[in-house]
Batch of 3 targets.
Target 1
Amino acid sequence: MSKRYCKQINFSITTVLAVLCLSASLQAKTFEREYTYRASEADSKITARSIALNQVKTALLEEIGVYIESTFDDKSAEKNTGLEQLSQQQIVSITAGVTETKILDEKWDGQTYYMKAQITVDIADVKKKIAEIAKDRDKTKELEEVKQKADAAYKQIQNLQSQLVKTWDDNVKLKLQADYQKNSDNLSVADWSQMGYNALDSNDYDKAILYFQKTIGSSSGVLLFKDIDDFFGYLNIGLAYYMKENYDKSIEMLEKAVQLNTKYEKAYSLLGCAYAGNGNYDKAIEVFDKAIQISPEDANLNYNIGYAYRKTGYLVKATKYYKQAANLGQKDAQEYLKLHGVEWK
């Protein structure tokens, strides 16, 4: 199976947005913010920096979110894209994954951490990307969870600072400081994840791999299922290797991902594509079958499993899945059936 077919699966920022490109336009706008963090007794330079970075990025992204909403022209254009149905927090969460934060200046004097940062965005381009990603509920949820985890970590850091001020017990302090470090790590994981998504969006797969590697085994805390950061880390590294056409490494990473979460259809879909990329269509069918049990109405998935059956010579089964894909609106399946004189309705 060529990569062209599997790229129709809506499993990532990159595959959804491959046809979109950044361009310098009259709608480009730069947002800039400064933030000074006063360190607590539990802070090191590293934890102080992670907190300062989190807060300056939060301020920038929220400002961008408000600005994007203000550009909705009587919402007529946005109704066709679904933008108007998104909350401001969803806009902020998605924007974090498709923009790059540039650090302009930072200073640490042992007591305060100063940071100045900016984000430059092409508003029209970002709105297109947000609208495209919003069509994929799983991806939108994934990006929301990254932000929610960072917000929860920062809130917990504030609580721990308050507790540390009040306690004189050394044993209690040690435990609170350990929790403090874990939550600081969670802030860093969120930042690495957002940089990883932006790298995927920019087709910089080597950087994406490096960023997502940092999220694996680095985080503490669970949102929806066990080892959520490891799961998404392996999933997105697998995606990056897949886009680089390194199917062996993609399979290695994605096999680890599906071991951590057996209910995420898009992980199986991508793994099936990776096996197909290696020419192992029997294994691709096995994996696609697991995906289709979760999402039987996915048009592209039906097409892909049909294509894999066709490559292995099982034309009756291939036609069955092509018909299902065609009835779900999959254009390539429709064209194939027309070419072979097969009715699907």
Target 2
Amino acid sequence: MKVLIVDNDLKTLDYLGDIIAKEGFDISKAKDGASALKKYYEQKPDFICLDVVMPEIDGHDVCKEIRKTDPDTPIVFISSKADLSDRIAGLELGGDDYIVKPFDIGEVIARIRAVARRCIKSQGTKNIDDHFDLSNVRIFPNQLKAKKKDETIDLSLRDIKLLRLLYDHKNEVVNRDTLLDYCWGAHIMPESRTVDWHVSQLRKKIEDDPKRPEIIKTVHGIGYKYEE
């Protein structure tokens, strides 16, 4: 899933990019309205995170231009303009959500996941299973969630990718390079310990005992496996 991030402040741009990339999305960045529109037409992202205050072409103008021909691509405004009138203006222009700077990481992740779920739903799920089971955990890819007994667990897109890969190769060892390529992308070159760290965090979400995992098992020196 592709996300276009637009922000006039380069530090915020990089910070948002890191947050959203860690969720497992493919990101593209633009630092002004003109380059945002250019990348939008070239790349057709699944949704857009859009700053409001930018020189020449501001976020509102970018949104209006996109909405002339595209009523569906979700647009999340991220702005330091916090007045209720500013929020209303953004939503009336066709924005789907409005996040105020300075923002909390947890809030951004929750809003982005909500947008992603809407994107998946609007694109249809005929190529996505409604659910699949790993031991006592039921995974719902199109909801970015899992259920274990009566507990509902929020998952990132990357969590879903990793669990799906292990499920599709049940009883087989999936090496770290394969996990990196599938879950992070062949164009990204994180260290292999990135996989180990992510698996350790995912185990905390889904395993009964993360220190003695029964779902994501380590195969030392190679990778991981799920045994059915």
Target 3
Amino acid sequence: MVRIRVETRSVLRSLPLVVAAAALTAGAVIGFGPAGSPIPRAATPATLTAASPEPPRVAGAWEPVEVSTAPLSWPVADAIGPQVRLYEQPDVAHPRVPVLDNPTWERLAVVFAVLEERGPWLRVRVSARPNGFEAWVEKAEVSQREVPNHVVIEVGARRVTVLRGDEVLLRETAAMGSDATPTPLGSFFVDGVVDVPYDDGPYGAFQVSVSGFSDVLHTFGGGVGQIAVHGTDRPDLLGQPVSNGCIRLSNDAITRMAALTPTGTPVEIVA
């Protein structure tokens, strides 16, 4: 058995000029990119082992290649009847919220973010207090689908980003909750998209309702203190902490966001 230790740079220097140039050109052809693109980094040092009857082996230390792990789809479940039963565990009725009416009191269809599938059961995230509320539902009481995008809301940066995998589809400056009425943090989902009748009102062109609730306000404007991403008639306040917990965007931005975030779209609100 013969073991040969080689340094990458010394190999290129030892090759005749024509052969070395041919090797680099071939690399461009077989998958390293067109001529003029950066030369891929080789292992340094590399060890070549070649001996019969064993096949040749090459060992070395290569820098890891970063591969995106961001999902390209997210599972969602829609209630299909006038009610859907919630369970604390499969076959164990939920003691606090045993049933949800469909549609909701706001006339929105009941939707869940699916977290786990187990036989005839789904573990889901529910649009209800407390934030992060989870339950089990029967597959027979819902229809299943997938959504392609997800939303990241950065409270400190006052920014809303809609992504498909790692691709940024929309990134806009937003107004966030004030110190007295902060925007809640956590993992949520879009539970309703409402085309507001009067674009010049305080809620702008659209409301993208989020399954999160204010930690401070349990009632607001006739509602239950639920937050939303919505437009505004005060674009001069964008980028400031001035809301009652909702996230405000320009009317142009919320119109584009509404088209990208169907119900069930995951929403992550971070500090």
